[in-house]
Structures are given as C-alpha cells and as structure tokens.
Write a structure and sequence with these properties.
Layout (H helix, E strand, L loop, with lengths): L10 E8 L7 E7 L5 E6 L7 E3 L5 E3 L6
Antiparallel strand pairs: 1-2, 2-3, 4-5
C-alpha cells in the first residue's frame, strides 16, 4: 500500500479489527514509515480457491470442509 502523502511503499499496520457492521471487511489503521502520517483503510479479503489435479488431468476446486 502506498502512503497517500509521500508515496512511500513501506507502511505498517497500527491497528486491525473486523468491521462492526459487516464481518466480511477489516478496518485497519496504517501509518507511513517515512513521513509518519496515519490513515484508515477498509479492506476486503480476496477469496482464494485451491484446485487439485486428479490423476487423469481433471482439475476441481478443493473443498476444505471435506478435507
């Protein structure tokens, strides 16, 4: 993530918590390592799917619940 003031790529997360209204988002407080400015972000995690390749070359999504 880039600093909105100086454009530095090195930022740190000062606080992280789930959104009170919507548990699919994460509210974070970030700050720049170079200039020290802080700003809030609201982030949505990406859905990552794993696929497994069967012996005959067919692929299917891995269901983590079934193992």
């Amino acid at each position: 993530m880039l600093c909105p003031v100086c454009g530095n790529e090195k930022t740190k997360v000062d606080d992280s918590r789930p959104d009170e209204k919507d548990n699919t988002r994460i509210n974070r407080r970030r700050s720049c390592v170079r200039c020290g400015i802080g700003w809030p972000t609201r982030e949505v995690p990406e859905n990552i799917y794993f696929e497994m390749m069967k012996i005959r070359g067919k692929t299917e999504k891995l269901n983590r619940i079934e193992g």
